[in-house]
Amino acid sequence: MVMVHAVYTSAMNHATVIATYSRRMRIALDDGQEVDARIKGKRLKPVCGDRVRAEPIANEDDWLITQIDERRNELTRPNMRGQVEVLAANLDYLVVVAAAEPKPDWFIVDRYLCAAELMGIDACVVFNKSDLGTSDARYELDTYFDIGYDVVACSAQTGDGMDNVREVLASHRAIIVGQSGVGKSSIINSLLGDDVQKTSEISDKSREGRHTTVNSAMITLQGGGAIIDSPGVRDYAPALESSAIASQGFREIRDAAQECRFANCRHLREPGCAVKARCETGEISPRRYESFKRIVNLTEQLNEGKY
C-alpha cells in the first residue's frame, strides 16, 4: 500500500494558532488550509492567537511549529509556581462575562478589565442569563458603562440581547472570559446557531460552574471577527511586574491620579490623593477602589513569593 501525502511548495509557512491541545495545536496557514501541528522542542509555548512559523513534516500529515513571531500583546496570569502563564495573544478586544447565576464576582470582572487596559485593548462586560433578572447587578453594570466600557445584558437561552453581542464583536479578534458556569460556551453556541462548544449545567450541590472548556479555541463568527473561548475560572489575576502598574488598569483611577499631590502616589495612604478624594465623593466606586487595592496587595504577595 502506497501512502500519498500532500506536497507543499514552501518548506516554511506563516500560520495562526487557532486551537491548543497541550503540546499539540491546530493552525491556520495563510493560504487558508487548517492543519494539525506539533511543537519543536520544549521551550516554545504557542497559545491561541499566536502567529507562528511552521513547516510540513516529511511523510506525515502533521506540521511542526518552529518559531513564534513577536506578540502584539498577551493575556497573562501568574501560576502557582510563581511563573507567568500566557493564555492568549494578539487580541484587540476582551469580553468578560458575568451572569445572574452563579453569583457574580465583580472583583474577577475588574481583574480581567485591568488586564485589558494593560494590554491596550478595549473590553466589554456581558451580563448573561438576564432572563433570571438584572436588578441585583444593575449598579455594577451602570458603573462599568459610566467608566466607558461596552455593557450588554443578554440571555443565550432566550436569544434576548444576542444581536447586541454580535454587534460589539464584529470585526474584532476577542477572547471571552469569566467564571465557570456563566454561559460563555452557550453564548458562542447562540452566536453560531449551533452547539459548537460543550455546555454544562450549574452544579446543584455547589452552585458553582463546572469547567467545560478544556482547551482554548479560536472560532470565526458569521457576522465577522473571531472569538477565543477560554476555560472558566474560579479566580483570576493579571500578572503584573509591580504593584505600581495596577493603577494603570483602572480607567477612573488612572484619570484621577493626574491630580494627586505627589507624582509617585500609590493611592493608598498618601496625603493629597485625588483618587481617595473621588472615592469619598462617590465619583469613583468604593468597590472598584477596593478591587484596585486587592490587586496591589495580591501583586506584592506574588512578587514576594508569599501567595
List the helices and strands and how they pair.
Elements: E1 13-21, E2 24-29, E3 34-39, E4 51-56, E5 63-68, E6 74-78, E7 84-89, E8 93-99, H1 106-119, E9 122-128, H2 138-147, E10 150-153, H3 162-169, E11 173-178, H4 184-192, E12 217-220, E13 226-229, H5 251-256, H6 274-281, H7 286-303
Parallel strand pairs: 3-5, 8-9, 8-11, 9-10, 11-13
Antiparallel strand pairs: 1-2, 1-4, 2-3, 4-5, 6-7, 12-13
Task: Tell me what the structure shows.
With 307 residues, this protein is α/β, with parallel strands linked by helices. It folds into three domains: 13-68, OB fold (Dihydrolipoamide Acetyltransferase, E2P), CATH 2.40.50; 74-229, 3-Layer(aba) Sandwich (Rossmann fold); 243-303, Orthogonal Bundle (Ribonucleotide Reductase Protein R1, domain 1). 24% of the residues lie in helices and 25% in strands. It has helices spanning 106-119, 138-147, 162-169, 184-192, 251-256, 274-281, 286-303, and strands at 13-21, 24-29, 34-39, 51-56, 63-68, 74-78, 84-89, 93-99, 122-128, 150-153, 173-178, 217-220, 226-229. The strands form three sheets. The protein has a six-stranded mixed beta sheet, sandwiched between helices. Strand 6 and strand 7 (84-89) form a beta hairpin. The radius of gyration is 21 Å and the shape is globular.
Jot down its keywords.
six-stranded mixed beta sheet, OB fold (Dihydrolipoamide Acetyltransferase, E2P), Rossmann fold, about 25% helix, Ribonucleotide Reductase Protein R1, domain 1, five-stranded mixed beta barrel, about 300 residues, disordered N terminus, 3 domains, 7 helices, alpha/beta
